[in-house]
Amino acid sequence: MDRALLIDCDGVLVDVEIDGHLAAFNQVWREEGVPWQWTPGQYRTALRTAGGRERLAALAGSPDFLAAVGSLARFGDWRSTVERWHRRKTELLAAIIERGGVQARPGVVRLMREARQEGWALAVVSSGTARTVHGFVRTLLADLADDLVVVTGDDVSTKKPDPEGYLRALTRLRVPAHRALAVEDSHRGLRAAVTAGLTCLVTTTPATAGQDFTAAVAVLSDLGEPGSPPVRGLPGEWSGHVTVAHLASLLDAARSGPVVHR
């Protein structure tokens, strides 16, 4: 295999930041009687920090959070509190996944299957926990699991925008960076992929639309499905959905000086 397709999980394979992660975080606080709930807008801001545990820890510096709860002293040891909240949030999200309550974003599973048939190596590279990411893989990519490299936030010392996750995946795939294409949804993920030397395509979500994607080779609404409405952002010469041939053309263009589509 001399080419590879690497995708992010949250925001690319699935979009559960608001209905999944945010809902689970807020449920944790309701269970514990903490007078705080993230609004969707506040959570979108929090998403600039990679990793749920890290987002929770950052609340210690949030004026809104401190105004709502009064003082961190009410929680005792802050680090232990963050770990407890994150553990419970992961349990709640896992229950949602196991109930089959999560759908893949348009075109992702199709494109990964087609890429595998064309001989591409495959990977999922995420800042999420191993339990959550592998849960999504088992639910949505079960037929590809044996051929899939998975790197999670538990596998790295530094999360995105650090490139460590992508570099680990490339090592395991044995594919050079210039022969690999990443699909990301956020500026943070884009930076990680590009810093690792990959070509990167972005599919936006409501939580990430409007971020700086100038380093991406293309910025699309999603990857699309045959027979569905055309993907927003597709170059005029492409069909209504992204194909493996399109991915190959992006890689080839990047090697000779990419033509960026936005």
What are the main properties of this structure?
HAD-like_sf; single chain; Rossmann fold; alpha/beta; DNA polymerase, domain 1; about 260 residues; 10 helices
* CATH homologous superfamily assignment of the largest domain: HAD superfamily/HAD-like
Output the radius of gyration. Answer: 19 Å
Task: State the strand order across the main sheet.
Answer: 3-2-1-4-5-6
User: Major sheet: size, sense and barrel closure?
Assistant: 6 strands, parallel
Number of domains: 2
CATH topology of the largest domain: Rossmann fold
Query: Helix proportion of residues, in percent?
Result: 40-55%
> Which sequence of SSEs, written as H and E, runs from N to C?
EHHHHHHEHEHEHEEH
How much of the polypeptide forms β-strand, as a percent range? 5-15%
Going by helix content, strand content and strand pairing, the class is alpha/beta
In the CATH classification, which architecture of the largest domain applies?
A: 3-Layer(aba) Sandwich
Under the CATH scheme, which class of the largest domain? Alpha Beta
Calculate the mean pLDDT score and round it.
Answer: 93
Net shape: elongated
Please provide a brief summary of the model.
By secondary structure, the chain is an alpha/beta fold. It has helices at residues 17-32, 40-46, 52-58, 63-69, 78-98, 108-117, 130-140, 164-173, 187-195, 244-256, and strands at 4-7, 121-125, 148-151, 180-184, 199-203, 218-220. It is elongated, with a radius of gyration of 19 Å.
Describe the structure in your own words:
This protein is 42% helix and 10% strand. It is an alpha/beta fold and 262 residues long. β4, α9 (187-195) and β5 form a beta-alpha-beta unit. α1 (17-32) packs across α5 and α3 runs antiparallel to α5 (78-98). It starts with a strand and ends in a 6-residue tail after the last helix. The relative contact order is 0.15. One of its GO terms (molecular function) is hydrolase activity.
